[in-house]
Amino acid sequence: MKNFIVRTITGVFFVAAIVVSFLNPLAMVFLFALVTGLTIWEFCGLVNERPYVQVNQFISTVAGMYLFLAMAGHCSGRTPDTVFIPYLITIVYLLIAELYLKAKDPINNWAYTMLPQLYIALPFSMLNVLAFPQAGSYSFVYPLSVFVFLWMNDTGAYLCGSLLGRHKLFPRVSPGKSWEGSIGGGVLVVGVAILIWWLLGKTQQHSDLGVIEWAGLGLTVVVFGTWGDLVESLLKRTLGIKDSGNILPGHGGMLDRFDSSLLAIPAAVVYLFTISLM
């Protein structure tokens, strides 16, 4: 009972912090730059426990945070394209450094150093593409919708899975997930997507998406969010851990809370760019 209360309180503050941050562009940039840094720091700490792995935790974390901030400046039109040069120099440095560190397995170090940039920093930085659809303009609609879809998918999957779950979705990686739960989560998200489309029309908020496109965005987030969850489950199974950390009482670590979004965010960006070209 105590763990349930702690988990509930943490969850409420977690959701509230994300929702409130999206109401102001500076708050959003600050919060998710911090989230990016904490997630990369956590990831590097985990992989550094593996044999023959020595990732520069500090430089990797700073580089990932810088990429997020650079993307925010670029997408908002506040910085020139040259803002990415320090990040590129840092990546080159992390590759060259292995020539002088005399590690037993430098390939391991290269792989684990680049993975958090690809797996964590780049997806989080794509939030800025959703939040700043045009230079100088900010909209919380798309980035917040992605997280709402993820939360609703988790809720629907848990409820339907608990009541109807019979067929395992991916037992090798996550034996608790079922096809019934995933379908239930998807149906709930489609309903929420239609509701968002209706609310935007009622409040006269600008949106380039029709009801079908909104439903498609919801399903895209559901599919890739589920894969994101499974990817992190495979990561934890490989590392032999139950939670990625304990920074969020009752919820584990940063990767545990943002695993779904790491694939859902870039998938949403690709989806929106694709339908804009059709």
Mean pLDDT score, rounded?
Answer: 92
Low-pLDDT stretches are none
How many E-type strands?
Answer: 2
Spatial gap, N to C terminus: 51 Å
- How many strands, what sense, and barrel or not for the largest sheet? 2 strands, antiparallel
Order of helices and strands: HHHHHHHHEEHHHH
The strand line-up of the biggest sheet is 1-2
Notable features of this structure?
278 residues, mainly alpha, two-stranded antiparallel sheet, 12 helices, globular
Task: Describe the protein.
72% of the residues lie in helices and 3% in strands. It is built from twelve helices and two strands. The chain has a two-stranded antiparallel sheet with strand order 1-2. Helix 2 runs antiparallel to helix 3 and helix 8 packs antiparallel against helix 9.
Secondary-structure map:
Blueprint: H1 2-21, H2 25-47, H3 57-75, H4 85-96, H5 98-101, H6 106-125, H7 127-131, H8 141-164, E1 168-170, E2 174-178, H9 179-202, H10 211-239, H11 254-258, H12 261-276
Antiparallel strand pairs: 1-2
Short description:
By secondary structure, this protein is an all-alpha fold.
